[in-house]
């Protein structure tokens, strides 16, 4: 296959997953050798083994980092601080895309961004939704699950002072009923305790005791 033919084949794909692309090819070894050569010559940008972007000037669809995250490790979803930023709960821009996966933990730093994958047991892999932007799909934790994932995976002792330091904003958008529903599914008393702390923090804000 010539490079021009390859470009025509993948030009509408933001991210090229060669395993998926050639899943129906009986003997893809020859194409994989060519892909390796195109990568070495700068015609393809490698994000990890088997996952690439087209290099300039052949790019037709610019890959969004949130979509790249969903391709780098499957299954996974974006959570923790990056999800809190997405939902408008923290003011800072977060550079690292922290993701939750049932696969092995790992980190990928590549031209598309910085992606940190945290392992979580299969029984806690829920509480996310698909998000579409520019016809690219990403998987994002709900605001409530992002908070609980962060407390759980970072082993944080959640207090009102900690929530002040986190500089939570727009807390009226936190669904308290969903927060408690999710906290119960962790089957850990500490998570219910943290949910109650968040509930108090939100209620204090709504009553005017806190100005965020």
Unreliably modeled segments: none
- Kindly report the average pLDDT value: 95
Shape category: elongated
Give the SSE string.
Answer: HEHHEEHEHEEEEEHHHH
The helix count comes to 9
**What's the arrangement of strands in the largest beta sheet?**
4-5-7-6
Please indicate the count of domains.
Answer: 2
What is the beta-strand fraction? Answer: 15-25%
User: What would you call the structural class?
Assistant: alpha+beta
E-strand count: 9
Could you tell me the radius of gyration in angstroms?
21 Å
Distance between the termini: 58 Å
Largest sheet: 4 strands, mixed
Helical residue percent? 40-55%
Summarize the structure.
This protein has 212 residues and is of the alpha+beta class. Helix content is 40%, strand content 21%. The model has no long low-confidence stretch (mean pLDDT 95).
What is the topology?
Elements lengths: L2 H8 L5 E2 H4 L7 H12 L3 E5 L2 E4 L10 H8 L3 E3 L1 H7 L9 E6 L4 E5 L2 E7 L8 E6 L2 E6 L1 H11 L6 H7 L9 H10 L3 H18 L6
Parallel strand pairs: 5-7
Antiparallel strand pairs: 1-3, 2-3, 4-5, 6-7, 8-9
Helix pairs in contact: 5-6, 8-9
């Amino acid at each position: 296959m010539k490079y021009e033919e390859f470009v025509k084949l993948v030009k509408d794909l933001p991210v090229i997953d060669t395993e998926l692309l050639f899943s129906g090819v009986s003997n893809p070894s020859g194409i994989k050798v060519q892909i390796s050569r195109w990568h070495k010559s700068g015609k393809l940008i490698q994000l990890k083994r088997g996952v690439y972007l087209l290099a300039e000037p052949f790019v037709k669809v610019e890959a969004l980092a949130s979509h790249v995250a969903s391709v780098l490790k499957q299954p996974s979803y974006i959570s923790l601080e990056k999800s809190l930023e997405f939902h408008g709960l923290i003011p800072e821009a977060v550079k690292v895309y922290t993701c939750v996966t049932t696969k092995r933990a790992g980190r990928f730093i590549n031209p598309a961004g910085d992606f940190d994958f945290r392992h979580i047991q299969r029984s806690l892999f829920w509480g996310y939704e698909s998000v579409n932007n520019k016809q690219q799909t990403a998987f994002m934790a709900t605001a409530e699950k992002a908070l609980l994932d962060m407390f759980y995976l970072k082993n944080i002792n959640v207090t009102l002072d900690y929530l002040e330091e986190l500089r939570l904003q727009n807390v009226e958008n936190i669904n308290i009923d969903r927060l408690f529903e999710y906290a119960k599914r962790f089957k850990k008393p500490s998570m219910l305790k943290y949910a109650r702390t968040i509930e108090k923090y939100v209620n204090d804000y709504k009553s005017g005791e806190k100005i965020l």
